[in-house]
Amino acid sequence: MPAKTRSVGFRCALAGAMALCWIPIDGSATELRESRTFAPLEAAPALDPDKVALGRTLFADPILSRSQTISCSSCHDLARGGTVGLSRAIADDGKEHGFNAPTVFNVAANYLLGWRGKHKSLEVLNEKVLLDPRLMAADWSLLADRLEQSPPYAAWFRRVFGRPPDRASVLDALVAFQRSLVTANSRFDRHLRGDASALTPDELKGLKLFMSYGCASCHQGVNLGGNMRQRFGIFADPSSSSAVNEAASSTAGAQASDDDLFRVPSLRNVAVTGPYFHDGRVDSLSEAVSIMARRQLGQTLSGSDIEAIVAFLNTLTGEYDGRKLESPAASIDP
Fold first, then answer.
1. 25, 66: one domain
2. Is 97 annotated as a binding residue?
3. Is 215 within any annotated ligand binding site?
4. pTM metric for this prediction
5. Are 142 and 205 part of one and the same domain?
6. Are residues 53 and 137 in the same domain?
């Protein structure tokens, strides 16, 4: 077995991803398809357009928060990568939440949801966000009354669902809209489908490094992540204290045994969804790659390798409504 393959296998074992201990290092579309390490992102499934339209309006309306000052899009702005470029989400009471707001794009392709990865249903996740006093701080009686007292919403819910607004219909509409938020047709998707010109030589080099270093042991599948939980810090890094992790755990109400476990985030659109990590501690994608290599893989990467991997990560930016996603200001490297 080649030394590079052995080292990848060792890191896979440390990361708890035994099923992916063989990672291809050629990077060709044929080899990637055969290994099933990645899969191209398909367009959004057929959805009820009336539910999607209602969900889109609800998503952007502060009516769903207790104070009526924030909406879902306050943290997940579709014009800014599905996030807002802040290190932490801002709650209904104006206080900073313990976690960074992840992008809402391609959320339906995640097997696990939330930074702790404890939810497997968009309905459950949406309800948690709506009712959590550290987020939207609402309750169902309040929301149903507000929506029913709004003539446009009252009529809209009756037209779409045949009944007044209630818990099930609000969640149904929100989830239908979120399932539509698919950013297909990235250059990496085109590469996976066999377009030999989709990636430049530098980007292809970055893809090979991404696989050979073992990044793909956790960031794999159709969403390049979102399907497992891992400890943040397989290899100790004294320069990055675990105190932030513990504070975040307390905010999330997690048990002490889960202090360092987080959902592996999707890397789709990662170049336009900074700042990075669960606490938004890093603005630079290059720095995030360097930290992950040290903490998760026990590797110190050269500047040229980091540059190549970042070049590859930029190919994961997809399109929504026929336009390539753009980033919030100052969240990525120039």
1. no
2. no
3. yes
4. 0.86
5. no
6. yes
Task: Read off the tokens for 206.
Answer: 């970055």
Q: Is residue 333 part of a domain?
A: no
Confirm or deny that 218 is annotated as ligand binding: yes
Does residue 190 share a domain with residue 317?
yes
Domain that holds residue 275: 3-42+183-324
The CATH number given to whatever domain includes residue 271 is: 1.10.760.10
Span between the terminal Cα atoms of the chain, in Å: 40
**Tokens for 119?**
């939810």
> Any long-range contacts for 57-63 (C-beta under 8 Å, 24+ apart)?
57/156, 58/170, 58/173, 58/174, 58/177, 59/174, 59/177, 59/178, 63/143, 63/146, 63/147, 63/150, 63/153
Question: Among the three residues 112, 144, 179, which one is the final residue of a domain in this structure?
Answer: 179
Residue 292, annotated ligand binder?
yes
Alpha-carbon distances, residue 268 vs 217, 254, 275, 300 (angstroms):
16, 27, 14, 24
Say if CB 259 and CB 246 are below 8 A apart: yes
Are residue 71 and residue 56 in the same domain, yes or no?
yes
Q: Among the three residues 179, 205, 229, which one is the final residue of a domain in this structure? A: 179
Question: Could you list the pLDDT tens digit for every one of the 334 residues in the chain?
Answer: 344 433 443 344 344 333 344 455 667 777 776 678 999 999 999 999 999 999 999 999 999 999 999 999 999 999 999 999 899 999 999 999 989 999 999 999 999 999 999 999 999 999 999 999 999 999 999 999 999 999 999 999 999 999 999 999 999 999 999 999 999 999 999 999 999 999 999 999 999 999 999 999 999 999 999 999 998 888 755 344 444 444 443 333 444 356 678 999 999 999 999 999 999 999 999 999 999 999 999 999 999 999 999 999 999 999 999 999 986 553 334 3
Count up the domains in the chain and report the number: 2
Asked if residue 269 is part of any domain, the answer here is yes
Was 12 annotated as part of a binding site?
no
332 falls within a domain: no
Asked if residue 330 belongs to a domain, the reply is no
As to burial, measured by CB atoms within 10 angstroms (0-12 exposed, 13-18 middle, 19+ buried), residue 309 is buried
